[in-house]
Amino acid sequence: MSQQLLNLPRKWLIFTVTATGTFMGTLDGGVVNVALPSIANQFNANIENIQFIVTIYLLAVTCFLPIFGKLSDLYSRKKLYLGGFFVFGVGSILCSLAGSLPMMIFARAVQGLGSSAMMANSQAIIAKAFSGKDRGRALGGIGAVVALGSLAGPAVGGFLIQHFGWPSVFWVNLPVCAIGIWRGLQIIPRFNPKSKMRMDMWGAVFFLISCFSFLYALNDGPSKHWNAPIILGAFATAAVFFGLFYYRERVSKTPFIGLSIFKVRAISYGYAVAVLGFMAVFTNSVLFPFYAADILHLDPVQTGLLILPFPVALALSSPISGLLSEKYPARLITTIGLGLVIAGTLMFSFMDGETSFFYIALAQLIAGCGSGTFQVPNNNTVISAAPKNKLGIVSSVNALARNAGMIMGIALSVAVYAAVQNLFISRGAAPDAAFLHGYQAAMWFGAAVALAGGILSAKRD
């Protein structure tokens, strides 16, 4: 179906299907974060190990994004997107049945593959269905859906855990998957690409090995120690295969990604800002539930309620940011958004065992508003600058940048937390005091990353 035939009502019907997948992914993230302490108790795991439930999902999503994005440029975006729904549903069933931490990690990897297929195609489908001002509004709407999923996640997760146990948090994905597949078959057009180019399989393999090795080493470095042979070997493997990938990109007639996209200033700066922005936002995602449980001694429902202000602010700021992007430069809006992320993260860095709920809620609101403000115009800038025949790969690498930022934000914040906590424990500090010192240091790290992103955003065209 050509873009000319997509009238406004049909465009927004397509939007509802992509929004369904986005909602499910963010809902799952929220309920899993709230469930982490309960899952940790079930499997007798510490923070350094339990974080892999989150990061293995992000690893699978991130590493396969360019592959699914490239396939969407060559084959059917519709089939890949709806196939992602199905695989995500299978992964959710496996998660609910997991009887050990390794089984849970495997199931989350399956979920990640499904989510990757959806995420790689979501923005590309939006970009094909919408153009001009409508595109900014649609991306702003997706940002609001992200917030609604995040908003519902902690509340739904807390309720389910309280009454049915942690396995129940994965059941909620199944009806959403069924609805998404059913409506997608009816509504999403084929959008079959005209290109007959083939995918460079060697380039894809080299990229996959390099990406996974690097992110694995980054994630496991804090728990296994940075000088452990397996971590040093993973970093070395990442470097070798990245070199092979780069060489393959230079000599292949049909490169896997095509390094020419990074010569477009709007795209390269947008990617860098996405990495830094999401690193800053995710420094608090794993640590805060443990702060609420171990320092404030809150139950899952109360923890979920304290997380809610962040997605509320995200839901309100995302569509507003989309509308503002029609009138003002992306550089201005994204820089203001990252400034708010800095302010909110700095507020987290001053929290202790006596911090009021009002203060915590205000910090969540400011950080959430900053996240929603910087994301939409940054995404729109990247997508609008993409060549038509590389829309899928540009969109998927944009998603890769976001997810790589999430993984690095989680891994490095936990590393900072663990290092500072261990330092204070070695000096004889009480466990709660050592936790707070580690938590506060991690939040200072997040603020510094957001500052770097804000400076880079201010410098772009």
Write structural notes for this entry.
This protein has 2 domains: 3-190 and 256-459, MFS general substrate transporter like domains (Growth Hormone, Chain: A), CATH 1.20.1250.20; 200-255. It is mostly helical and 461 residues long. It has helices at 8-43, 47-74, 77-97, 101-129, 133-164, 173-187, 201-224, 229-251, 265-281, 287-295, 300-307, 309-324, 330-349, 357-384, 391-426, 431-459. The chain is built from 16 helices and no strands. The longest helix is centred in the N-terminal third of the chain and has 36 residues, at 8-43. The chain crosses the membrane at residues 12-30, 50-68, 80-99, 105-126, 138-162, 168-188, 200-218, 230-247, 268-292, 304-325, 332-351, 357-378, 399-419, 439-458. This is Major facilitator superfamily (MFS) profile domain-containing protein.
Write the layout of secondary structure elements.
Elements: H1 8-43, H2 47-74, H3 77-97, H4 101-129, H5 133-164, H6 173-187, H7 201-224, H8 229-251, H9 265-281, H10 287-295, H11 300-307, H12 309-324, H13 330-349, H14 357-384, H15 391-426, H16 431-459
Helix pairs in contact: 1-2, 1-4, 1-5, 1-6, 2-4, 2-7, 2-15, 3-4, 3-6, 4-15, 5-11, 5-12, 5-14, 7-8, 7-15, 9-14, 9-15, 9-16, 10-16, 12-14, 13-14, 13-16, 15-16
Question: What characteristics describe this protein?
Answer:
single chain, 461 residues, mainly alpha, Growth Hormone, Chain: A, 2 domains, 16 helices, 80% helix, globular, disordered N terminus, EmrB-like, membrane
Q: Secondary-structure element order, as H and E?
A: HHHHHHHHHHHHHHHH
The whole-angstrom Rg is: 21 Å
Note the gap between the termini. Answer: 35 Å
CATH superfamily placement of the largest domain = MFS general substrate transporter like domains
Transmembrane segments: 12-30, 50-68, 80-99, 105-126, 138-162, 168-188, 200-218, 230-247, 268-292, 304-325, 332-351, 357-378, 399-419, 439-458
Pfam families: MFS_1
Keywords: Cell membrane, Membrane, Transmembrane, Transmembrane helix, Transport
Subcellular location: Cell membrane
